[in-house]
Design brief:
heterodimer, A: Rossmann fold, 9-stranded mixed sheet, 14% strand, B: 207 residues, elongated
C-alpha cells in the first residue's frame, strides 16, 4: 500500500492555483500557452465578490433526483456559476432549468439533449456535475474529461474493472480533477474514525466491516419488462438512456428508476452501498492503491458476512446487518483492532467507540485533520445530514488548486474493483484470488473474462 | 428495483456450449438469444467464434455478439473481427473497430488506419481511439499522418488516440517514441487541453 497515494497528496507537489498551474507548465516547456477561458462576472450576472478567474463555470449531465440534491448545494457557492444542463429527458431538463433560473433570477440556463453536442459546444464550462445512473457514470465522466472538463460524478464510478481503469487513465491523460460522490469521505464522524485508525488508537487493525444495501441482493435480474412504444426522442431518448449497455425494448419504468437490480445497469447491493463503505474502509486502512486479494463468497444471496482479505492480512467483511447489531443507520463502517474498535453510520450523533475517552480528542483530531488537509469537513452552519456540501466544496476547491480530491479516480477504481470482484465471486460462487498489480484474477480465466463488457456502438471508453 | 426471485445470476457452463450455439443460430425468441449472448462469451471455446461472427451484421444482435467475442481470449476472434470490417459500415463497423482496438490487434492497424478518413463520424472516431489503444509505432504513424487535415471532434479523437498511443509506448519502454508524440502535440494550436496534457507529459518525461 502506498503512503504517497493517501488522499491528501496533491497532483503536483506544490499547491498551485489554476493560473499558476498553466503558467508554470508553459514556462517549463518553453512554449507559449493560451490563458484559460474566463467569463467576465458581468456577463454572468454576478457581483464582484469573486474574481472571474477564480469562478468555476459548471454544467450538468443527467441531473435528476440525486443530481438535484447535489445541485442544491452547488448553487449555494458564490464562486460557481451553473450554466447548462444536458439530459435525455425533456421533463428533467426543464425541471433543472427552472431550478437554476429561479436561483439566479434570469432565464439564462441552456438545455441540451445529447452530450456529444453539449460537451464540444460548451467550451466555456470548466466542470461537470453528472448523475445519470450507474450505467453511464464512467462514460459520461470520461467524455467530459476528454473534452477538458473536471468532473464530480455520482457513485458508483464504474460498472466494470475496465471502466474504472479507463476513468483513471483519462483523468491522468488530461490532468483533470475528478471526484466521486462518496460524500461520507468528507463527513467528520467518518473522518474521525479513519483518524483513530491512522493514529494508532485501535492498535493493529485486523478487521474492517463494510455495510451493504438491503434492497435487491447480489443475484442480478435479466428480465425484460413488456415492450412499450418508443417515445418521441425529444421527450425521452431511449437510445441515449441505454448508452453503452446492451439494447433491450423500451419500457418507461426503467427510465423512471426501475433499473436497479438489473445486471446490465447495476452493481448489486454490494456496489449500492459498498461504493461508499468499501471505499471508506480502504481509505481508513490506507489501501487506496490496491484492492483485496482474496474473496470468499457465501451462499446467502445478500452476500451477508462475505469476507475479503488484503495482502497485508486485514480482513474486510461485507455486512448486511439486518438485525442492526453493528450499526443503527445506513452506510456504516466498523474498524476493529487489537486495542479497540470504532464504528459509524449515517445520522450518528457521535461515532461508536470501544473507549469513550477517545471522544475527548474528537475536536482536536478534526481540527488537525482540517488544518493538515485543507478539506472543509466541518464547514460552519452545515447540518450533519447535509455533508454532501463539504464533499462538493472539496471538489470545487480542488478544481481551483488542482489537488486531488479525496474520492479521486484511483481511490475509487481500487475500491470499485473490490465491489466488482466480490460480485463476480458471488455470481460464480467460488473463492477467488485477485492480483491488484496486474488487475486480474489468479488462475481463473472465466472470471477474467468478466473484467470488462464491450460498449454498445457508437460509444467509446 | 427489479423483482428478483431467481437464485443465480448466470445459468450456463462450458458444457452447455453446443446448446448455446444452437440457440444463437436459431431464429427463435429474441430475448432467449440475447440472454445466451450475454453468457456465452464467459464460457465459450473457439467453437463459438464463427457462430458469433455471423451476427456481427445484425442490427439488433451485433453488439451482443461483440460483447461475447471481445472477452474471448482466442486469436480466431481477431481474425473474424478483421474479416467483418470488410462487410460492415456505420455504427456496426465502429463497434468492430473498437473491439479490435480493445484487443490491441496489431494485424488490424492498416485496415483501421484506412477508416481514419471515413465520412462516417462514428467510424473515424472509433478508428482514432482504436489505433491509440493498439499503441505501436505503425498505429501512431497513421494517426500522425491524419492529424494535419483533421478538424473538430475528429481532431480531438486523433489527438486522444495519439495520447493513448504515447502512453502505450511509454509503458512498453519506448520512451523516445512516446516523447516524440508528446512533442508533436504540445505545439498544436488546438485543442488546448490536448496541448496542455502533452506539455505536462513531455515535461514529466524529461524531468
Amino acid at each position: 500500500m502506498n503512503e504517497s497515494k493517501q488522499p491528501h497528496s496533491p497532483i503536483s507537489k506544490t499547491k498551485q492555483t489554476r493560473r499558476k498551474f498553466i503558467g508554470t507548465t508553459a514556462a517549463a516547456a518553453g512554449a507559449a500557452i493560451a490563458a484559460p477561458t474566463i467569463i467576465p462576472s458581468s456577463a454572468l450576472g454576478l457581483g464582484d465578490s469573486v474574481a472571474p478567474s477564480e469562478r468555476i463555470v459548471f454544467g450538468g449531465i443527467g441531473i435528476r433526483n440525486r443530481g438535484r440534491y447535489d445541485l442544491r448545494f452547488l448553487l449555494k457557492y458564490p464562486d460557481i456559476q451553473f450554466v447548462a444542463i444536458c439530459d435525455l429527458r425533456r421533463d428533467s431538463r426543464e425541471v433543472c432549468k427552472k431550478m437554476v433560473d429561479e436561483h439566479y433570477g434570469n432565464k439564462d440556463m441552456k438545455m441540451y439533449k445529447d452530450l456529444r453536442e453539449f460537451l464540444p459546444e460548451r467550451t466555456d464550462i470548466d466542470a461537470i456535475l453528472t448523475a445519470p445512473g450507474d450505467r453511464w457514470h464512467a462514460l459520461a465522466a470520461i467524455m467530459a474529461m476528454r473534452a477538458g472538463k473536471d468532473v464530480y460524478s455520482e457513485k458508483p464510478s464504474s460498472m466494470t474493472i475496465q471502466e474504472g481503469q479507463a476513468v483513471v487513465d483519462t483523468a491522468k491523460r488530461f490532468g483533470r480533477v475528478y471526484q466521486t460522490g462518496t460524500q461520507r469521505m468528507n463527513e467528520r464522524h467518518y473522518v474521525f474514525c479513519n483518524e483513530l485508525l491512522r493514529r494508532g488508537y485501535l492498535g493493529n487493525v485486523h478487521t474492517v466491516r463494510a455495510h451493504t444495501a438491503p434492497w435487491v441482493g447480489v443475484v442480478m435480474d435479466h428480465d425484460w419488462l413488456p415492450e412499450e412504444p418508443l417515445p418521441d426522442k425529444e421527450e425521452i431518448d431511449w437510445d441515449i438512456w441505454l448508452g453503452p449497455t446492451p439494447w433491450r425494448p423500451y419500457n418507461k419504468q426503467y427510465v423512471d428508476g426501475k433499473w436497479r437490480g438489473y445486471y446490465d445497469w447495476h452493481t448489486s447491493d454490494i456496489g449500492e452501498w459498498g461504493a461508499h463503505t468499501i471505499s471508506q474502509c480502504q481509505l481508513g486502512i490506507g489501501a487506496t492503491d490496491t484492492s483485496p486479494v482474496e474473496y470468499y463468497p457465501v451462499e446467502d444471496t445478500s452476500a451477508d458476512h462475505m469476507e475479503t482479505k488484503f495482502a497485508n492480512g486485514i480482513k474486510m467483511i461485507l455486512n448486511l446487518d439486518k438485525e442492526k447489531q453493528i450499526w443503527r443507520g445506513s452506510c456504516g463502517v466498523k474498524y476493529e483492532g487489537d486495542e479497540g474498535w470504532c464504528a459509524v453510520a449515517d445520522a450518528y450523533e457521535k461515532p461508536d467507540v470501544s473507549n469513550e475517552k477517545w471522544l475527548e480528542d474528537y475536536d482536536r483530531i478534526i481540527d488537525e485533520y482540517e488544518q493538515e488537509t485543507g478539506r472543509p469537513i466541518k464547514a460552519p452552519d452545515v447540518p450533519m445530514t447535509d455533508f454532501s456540501m463539504n464533499h462538493l466544496r472539496d471538489f470545487v476547491n480542488c478544481v481551483k488548486t488542482r489537488e486531488q480530491p479525496v474520492a479521486n479516480p484511483e481511490v475509487m477504481h481500487r475500491s470499485m474493483t473490490a465491489v466488482h470482484a466480490a460480485n463476480i465471486a458471488m455470481w460464480l460462487q467460488r473463492e477467488m484470488q485477485f492480483d491488484p498489480v496486474k488487475q486480474e484474477f489468479v488462475n481463473d480465466p472465466e472470471a477474467n473474462r468478466m473484467r470488462s463488457r464491450a460498449q454498445r456502438e457508437p460509444w467509446v471508453l | 428495483m427489479a423483482e428478483n426471485e431467481q437464485k443465480q445470476t448466470f445459468f450456463y457452463t462450458e458444457k452447455d456450449e453446443d446448446k448455446l450455439i444452437g440457440i444463437i443460430e436459431s431464429d427463435g425468441d429474441l430475448k432467449e438469444r440475447c440472454d445466451v449472448l450475454r453468457e456465452i462469451g464467459r464460457v465459450a471455446t473457439v467453437k463459438s467464434v464463427e457462430p458469433l461472427a455471423a451476427l456481427l451484421g445484425d442490427e439488433v444482435l451485433a453488439h451482443r455478439a461483440r460483447y461475447a467475442l471481445e472477452m474471448m481470449p482466442f486469436p480466431e476472434v481477431d481474425d473474424v473481427l478483421r474479416k467483418a470490417m470488410k462487410d460492415q459500415k456505420g455504427e456496426l463497423l465502429s463497434g468492430i473497430i473498437m473491439s479490435l482496438g480493445n484487443r490491441r490487434d496489431t494485424a488490424a492497424v492498416d485496415a483501421i488506419a484506412e477508416q481514419l478518413g471515413s465520412s462516417e463520424p462514428a467510424v473515424a472516431l472509433a478508428a482514432a481511439y482504436a489505433l491509440g489503444n493498439i499503441g505501436t509505432q505503425d498505429s501512431t504513424n497513421a494517426l500522425l499522418a491524419s492529424l494535419p487535415e483533421s478538424k473538430g471532434t475528429h481532431r480531438d479523437a486523433i489527438c486522444e488516440g495519439l495520447l493513448r498511443a504515447a502512453e502505450a509506448m511509454k509503458a512498453a519502454g519506448w520512451d523516445e517514441n512516446a516523447l516524440a508524440v508528446y512533442d508533436r502535440l504540445r505545439i498544436l494550436k488546438e485543442p488546448r487541453h490536448v496541448r496542455e496534457a502533452a506539455m505536462v507529459s513531455s515535461v514529466e518525461m524529461r524531468s
